[in-house]
Amino acid sequence: MTAEPTKTTKSQPVGASIDYTRFLDCVHCGLCTSACPTYLETGDENDSPRGRIYLMRAVTDGKLELSKTVKRHLDLCLDCRSCETACPSGVQYGRLIEPFRNEMQQAEKKASPNSGPDWFHRWILLGLFPYPKRMNWALLPARIAQALKVDRLIEALQLPKLMPRRLARMYSILPKLIPHGPPLPERLPAHGERRATVAFFTGCVSESIFNHVNQATVRVLQANGCDVISPPSQACCGAIHYHSGAGEQALQFLEQNLNAFPLDEVDAVIGNVAGCGAMLKDYGHIAEELVPENKKLHEKLSAFAGKIRDISEFLIDLGPIKPEGSIPLKATYHDACHLVHAQQIREQPRNLLSMIPGLELVPLAESDICCGAAGSYNLTEPEMADRLAARKLGNIEQTEAQALISANAGCTLQIQSTLKRAGHDVWVVHPIELLDLSYQKKQPPIPKGIS
Fold first, then answer.
1. Are 434 and 338 part of one and the same domain?
2. pTM of structure
3. At what angle do helices 311-318 and 211-223 cross, to 10 degrees?
4. What sign results for the dihedral spanned by CA atoms 290, 296, 298, 304?
5. Which residues form the domain of 401?
6. What is the per-residue pLDDT across 385-441, written as a single tens digit (0 to 9) for each?
């Protein structure tokens, strides 16, 4: 039976359960400010990591009321964790902002027990996105509309303007939906000599919208000598619920995934979405926050987290088979925040891409500054998300690239829709898709790029 996550009591200020030494790790040097996307946009110290740590610590100390203004500065944080990369003191900012927000949500629920999440959080973020089967049914009308070209008529008539604002925004970032491949078998054999046995984490939104990337990932693993297990009972990583303050439901996902994957049989559990991978690698820490008394569960989830590898990280460690198919494409690479900052994976994707014959990889300015996607942030904080998307667009335009490479589903959706609105014919692609094409000696769609 799942233990109930710890809730803040009346006598406890928000943040009381956080290890206080994490606040003290920050020496307020300010080196994080130049890496923080929201601070770069607003110039407000309260929108910087250093400023937010001041605010959280002051609330925890009882020196500052958790007012709407304070909450606003904390809510505006993307949780991109770029400050962790910049910090010379090793501040674990994610282990501050994430549990603090969770406690903030719990305190709000306690103060207004009958309020609950709004319709968008309840039915869309928490009730739809984490469930691939529900997502597939919800996307069916869009697939039909795209197949019949009705989507062009919908846009020409500006019908999305009649939708609720957040639904209209969801519609605006929906990509061209590629037909699903066949369901992944529970086990697929390696091609050639078996070098490893891995399990594959399919995800939720990624499985519904980017199933073709999952299919490519499995083919690449097989091509590199891996037996691949895809447990049918796996679930969403739980990030959407956890970051929305729904700790109990998040914990259910954690335990479901723990029970689904045969850890003793595999060398690694492979993910191909930066956000999911970061969440899975934090399972042990999150269990300590949600159920501090359940030490046995901490150990099990920490062991699970220790098996998680991003696909690029795993292949570089394994020693990738050299691809031979030429991909004559000018491309640039965007660092997904939860890959480069949360997982500290920067060179591995670039090293894989450098192996592909014919691929020209040009540098992207501010490659590791958030594009504004940040999970569901671009739906809940559209103004700041659009400002960051415009910043990213300007840097992409400078590259004159034909393709933008992104290793995260949220980044792909955000950047793809931004490029489309700007009138650019740029292919937004996962690095593993390019590697898969090269292994198969197939050609990608050659877009015009930025003109």
1. yes
2. 0.92
3. 10
4. negative
5. 323-440
6. 999 999 999 999 999 999 999 999 999 999 999 999 999 999 999 999 999 999 999
